[in-house]
Amino acid sequence: MSSVRATAGLERRALSLGTANAVDYALQFLLPMVLTRTLDPHAFGEYRLLWLAVATLMMVTPMCMAPALYYFLPRSDRPTQRLYINQTLVFLVFAGIVSGWALSLWNPFLPGKLEAINEGHGVLVPAFVLLWVFASLLDTLPTAEERVSWQAKVIMSLSAIRAVALSAAAILTHELAPVLWALLAFTGLKAAILVHYVAKHHGLAGPIGRRDTFTAQVRQAAPFALSGTLHGLRVQGDQWIAAALFSVTQFASFSVATVLGPLVQIFRQSVNHVFLPSMSRLQSEGDHQGMLALNSRANCMVALLVYPLLAFAFVFAEPVITLVYTRTYIEAVPVLRLYSLGLIAFVVELVSALFVLRQGAFAARTNGIVLLIALPLSIFGAMHYGLMGAAMGSVAAIYAERLLSLRRISSLTGTPIRKLQDWHALAMLLVAAALAAGLAGLLLHWSEWTSFPTLLAGAAIMAAAYPACLYLTGRWGDLITFVDSMRNKAVRA
């Protein structure tokens, strides 16, 4: 009974963080509606290219030192926690300096398209990158310490500030440079909040580091850092291929089609970051079945929310692109549909289980193997099938990586693959989402409405049909559990 209450408490925390991240995603999803209408396509392409470069560096230079706190903080006393946090802060400062240099004009190997973004902006880009890497600790530290409510409030507040600041800069100037200055100011604010948080809860005091604890932290983080780098190259490799083979404007069209990936990642992180400390404790106690049960429950919870969104995006891809990004970027439609198929498997998150099982080396090898599949396939696809073909490698890689990870976890825990996840529940949730989206698409297929009323009507039909489809597929109980969790969250608030 106590385990049921504990799981329910984790679900409420996950919903709290998920709500905040959903608000963040919604605001950042709507931000391009302003940018595509106020910046010319070339400037918007440069904006997207800069974020691609920053996202790639975030996969490399921070070396997973911040996520490693999910492993160490739940197992440490207060003085040791402060030591691990200090080590992470210092490491991120150096990682930020390296990242800033990598995207500056001081880097002799900087690609020409990124060099054009830097020209005339002085130290703007490297300063922004340095602060962004350092402030990224704010995205994980409060949750690692299980201060989920505080984390949720900060996420929503900062997201609103960022969206308003960047939109205002774009509307008032119609130029990229003021948008980048606004982004630098926002990142400085986020860094200041991080320093305030650490000072309040841990104090700005030594020791800064200790060899044995730093070595332990690096040993835990490094394999996953390598795995994350390979994973990042695989996930973002198709975007770099599109950036290299197509124009900046065409790259902008390709990049907007990847909007679903961050959406699924937001839901996954919101749930799994809350479950991960408990999974870590269960694994340390030798309870592998309890750890796997939490992972399976988390994935079903994500699927309940994400599968209908993926199905909706597949059916209504054209009005979504037209409404948010304008018809200038209509080439993104087939790419968006292909990505939505790949993200079906992406919902099944296995990295957290590998993390607590200390399988970083395996994860790195797996991502290396998958990378060798993804990049050549994307290059071949881009050369023969255009923008949509460039996405082929990423989609194939998602399924290959999941299969290899499932086999490894099964071997380590002595659990058959068929029992690692609730596959029947996941399949029925997908069927329910597909039925609801298909019905909405069928009813609106012959309409001649513009994008906004089409999406509004489609969403309304799906909202009405999805619960009925869940009932027909036997997953009505999942929806009831979700609603009860939301109700309990509201009562507690």
Strand content: under 5%
Number of helices: 23
Distance between the termini: 24 Å
Shape: globular
- Which percent bin holds the helix content? over 70%
Number of strands: 0
Structural class assignment: mainly alpha
**Series of H and E elements:** HHHHHHHHHHHHHHHHHHHHHHH
Kindly describe this structure.
Helix content is 82%, strand content 0%. The protein has 493 residues and is mostly helical. It is globular and about 65 Å long. The chain starts with a helix and ends with a helix.
Please outline the helices and strands.
Layout lengths: L1 H37 L2 H20 L8 H4 L5 H25 L9 H7 L5 H12 L5 H4 L3 H26 L2 H26 L9 H35 L2 H9 L3 H25 L3 H28 L1 H9 L6 H15 L4 H6 L3 H26 L1 H4 L1 H22 L3 H4 L2 H22 L6 H22 L3 H17 L1
Helix pairs in contact: 1-8, 1-12, 1-23, 2-10, 2-11, 4-6, 6-9, 8-9, 10-17, 10-19, 12-13, 13-15, 13-21, 14-22, 15-19, 17-19, 21-22, 22-23
Sum up the structure in keywords:
493 residues, mainly alpha, 23 helices
Concise summary:
The protein is an all-alpha fold and 493 residues long. It has 23 helices and no strands. It starts with a helix and ends with a helix.
